Structures are given as C-alpha cells and as structure tokens.
Amino acid sequence: MRTTISKVKDFVGQDVTIGTWLANKRSSGKIAFLQLRDGTGFIQGVVVKDEVSEDVFQKAKALTQETSLWVTGTVREDVRSPFGYELTVKDIEIIHEAINYPITPKEHGVEFLMDHRHLWLRSKRQHAIMKIRDEIIWSTYEFFHNNGFVKVDPPILTGTSAEGGSELFHTKYFDEDAYLSQSGQLYMEAAAMALGKVYSFGPTFRAEKSKTKRHLIEFWMIEPEMAFVEHEESLQIQEQYVSYLVQSVLSRCQLELKSLGRDVSKLENIKPPFPRITYDEAIELLHKKGFNDIEWGEDFGAPHEVAIAEEFDKPVFITHYPAKIKAFYMKPDPNRPEVVLCADLIAPEGYGEIIGGSQRIDDLELLKKRYEEHNLTGGAYEWYLDLRKYGSVPHSGFGLGLERTVAWITGAEHVRETIPFPRLLNRLYP
C-alpha cells in the first residue's frame, strides 16, 4: 500500500511503501535509524540487521543525505517519537543517490543558507514554518468566506502609488509609466462599493532600502475593505481575524509548533478583546520608559513599538495617529480633526506592526482637499474620486502582512524564514 507520512496513522500494523528522502541517519552495529521525509512530514525508519536481507542493511548504512528512496516497512506506534509513529523498514529501493549534499547536519552561516534557500527549505525547521504559513493562508480564506467576504484580485501593475510614497518599483507599460503595486487597497475600495465586504490576498512590493529583520522587498498582504463599516467595527473584525489565525494554528499545527520549540502558552492567550491605547497615550508611555527623543507628531520606529508591546501580553491597537503622518485617504476624527480614525496592531514579543487600518474618507470635498495637500492632482486618481461621487458610504479597511504574522506565530527571528524565496535589499537569488 502506497501512502504518505502524514497518513501512516491509518495503517498501524500494516506494511506501506512511502516515497521519501533521507534527511539524516545514524547507525550502531546491528541497527540503522533513518530520518525520512516526504514533504508531508518526518518519520523515523528503523532497519534491524537480523530482520532484513544483508543487501538491504548494507544499502541502509551506505545511504547519503537527501538520497531519494522508496521505503517499505511496517507502521508502528511509538510514544517516544514527537510524531507518534515509526517505520520498521523491510525494503529500500534507491531512486536517486545524492552526492555531497551541501547543507550538512551542522551549523551554517546565514548567507550560505540563503544562497542555498532552494535546499534549505527541506530542513525540519523550514518545513514547519512553511506548514504554519500554509495554515494561516488556509485559515484566512476560511475566516473571510465564513464571514461573507468576497475575494477580489486587484492589479499588480498600477499607474499610481496607493499611499503616495516614492518607494516604488518602476517599469514601462508599453509607452506609459507603471509601478509594481504597494497595496491593492484603492482598488479594493472600488470592489467594496460593488460587493459590500471584500478582501484581496496577493504580493506587494516596496522599494524600501531597509535591512531590518521585519522587512522584505516582496511580501504578501491580506487587505479587506468593508462598506458600511466604521472604525470601531473594523477593529473588532481585525481582532477576531487575528485570533482566528492563531487558534487555527494551535489547533492544527501542534507538531510543527513543537518542532520549532514555540512557547504555545503565549499564543493560547490570543483571544478578543485586544487592548487599545491612543497615539497620545503611547507617547506618554514611551516618555515614561525613557524614550524622550520622540515627540508628538512623529511616527514610531521598531524600538518604540517593541517598548509599547512589552506592556501587553496580547496584540495592542495604537489608535488615532496624527493625520500628517498617515495616508491621505484616512478619515479625520470628527471630534479632533488633527488625528485620524486609524489603528496599527502591534504584535507582542517584539514582532512589531502586523496590521495597519483605518476608516476611509467618504466625503468628496474633503478627499479633493487631501489630494491637493498631497500633490495628487491629475488624472491618475480621478477614478478614486468617483467612488465618493456616486453613492459614497462610510467604509473601512486594513492590511495584514503575512510574513510578519508568520514570524510572530512561529517565533522566527527574521522574516526571511517566513517566505519560500525571500527578496531582500541585496538578494535576488535564488
């Protein structure tokens, strides 16, 4: 019976054949232990000299790392194994012998591992992170589908910047200028006016010359937009969504979390409601903690976000930032126009901002004024004004960065481990 490692629990006491690679091995005289992987998981194969032919035993002892195999054996329960099962090997058929596999079971430098990212993905740690990333993606679709959202795919090639910034990748679109999208948000607002509650899930690009452990040049964003939803309701949806992601990983990825050594007690607490502080309160808190260099009206950097997050054991919303440091489309607080109805969600344990969101301006004249203040006049944004001309409604939205969220939930030190092939300031290979 052919099966996969993830399904061996259904075949206890039976003989199965699995297509695998040899991740590692050790032997002691009359027994060989093979660490096998097949993409769905890892299992130990035990080869006992007295129970197999001499040819099979010698073959097992001579196997090299990452050689591909058909392994046949009996599935046994094993309470000592994190997986809970092992394979008593009866036969081995070599598919392809790997010679001098470069990533050996020892310490390697980051640059070496990044140069061999196409192979580093095979390691147990990277496998676990990618499985958890997949669970977060699946849970995202599940959450929004179950809550009445429609998935809409905005363009990647655009004629403008969503946020009016300069950190754009420029290209030619025949005889026009075009840019790789920083965000699908503006298009998602148009979709929300047609479909009510929508979300996008796709790659975004920032030509930001940053080398921090939080930044990638190419990353994936989940961007919901919601018609007839105001700031308060949007915050509630955000905390429900993030909690759903965390609880789904806890429910379905216990083996991967254990493999990573993640302290799950810190994740079990991630349930609504999340704490909230205003920008004003955040400034006061930072001053109390010795950050006297930051003044009202300045944006927070990574050290500030970490210092604020240290005060909470859940993600914390920082709300009502000054309008002058936020995007042109954010709605001013009617009771205090110098701040906007927005929030950044800061993850605990030093992982920084994972969500940025706001209520959007729905008044045509105010948006026109913002256009002028941000030098956005011209034809490129006319269609966005149309959304306020024809049946404008209160609406809100937010964007969650997938890789930062994966880093936080898995406990990864750097976002380069949370995407299959990271694009960094000085890395476009492999």
From TrEMBL:
Its EC number is 6.1.1.22. GO terms for cellular component: cytoplasm. It is found in: Cytoplasm. Homodimer. Its main location: cytoplasm. It holds the Pfam family tRNA-synt_2. It catalyses: tRNA(Asn) + L-asparagine + ATP = L-asparaginyl-tRNA(Asn) + AMP + diphosphate + H(+). It is an enzyme of class 6 (ligase). This is Asparagine--tRNA ligase. It comes from the Bacteria. PANTHER family: ASPARAGINE--TRNA LIGASE, MITOCHONDRIAL-RELATED, ASPARTYL/LYSYL-TRNA SYNTHETASE. GO terms for biological process: asparaginyl-tRNA aminoacylation. GO terms for molecular function: asparagine-tRNA ligase activity; ATP binding; catalytic activity, acting on a protein; nucleic acid binding; transferase activity. Gene3D superfamilies: Bira Bifunctional Protein, Domain 2, Nucleic acid-binding proteins. Keywords: Aminoacyl-tRNA synthetase, ATP-binding, Cytoplasm, Ligase, Nucleotide-binding, Protein biosynthesis. Residues 130-430 form the Aminoacyl-transfer RNA synthetases class-II family profile domain. The keyword Iron does not apply. Belongs to the class-II aminoacyl-tRNA synthetase family.
